[in-house]
Amino acid sequence: MDILLVILGFVLMLTGILGSFLPVLPGTPISWVGLLLLHLTSVIPMDWAFLGITLGIALLVVALDYIIPVIGTKRFGGSKAGMIGTTVGLLIALLFPILGIFGIIIWPFIGALVGELINRTDHKTALKSAFGSFLGFLTGTFIKFVVAAVYLGLFISMVWEYKSMLFPFFN
To answer: I need a surface site. Which of 3, 6, 73, 118 has the fewest CB within 10 A?
Structure first.
């Protein structure tokens, strides 16, 4: 059962990292569930303080993920259309990887620009607003990715520390 929990936890950790980029998956809470599953094994001692702190961080990141793009958009004079355009651009980048890895950066910006151009007639204001929407999106994505990567590092370090008890057949 412990090995199943470790494998499922690791899959959730990888899904959490993907969730940093995919707008439909809550990346950091999924990664946190991976940490929780690891602590549910019979080998790793339950550390309620660790789980509480990491849960608090995961929930804070979820809240910031909604707040940061709004701040970035409003700071640069953007609208909701720019934020929607950013999300549509990201989905295009994920579904049609035409520009490769650069598409993850370029398509959300193009989406924000198109959203702002549809909402406004002034090209200069639309470009500035699109930049704000895009900057907010990048900031939120970066924070989610860093936290999910740190959680993965914690997961791997705990598995490594208890590897002889988790996987006794490899000794």
So the answer is: 3
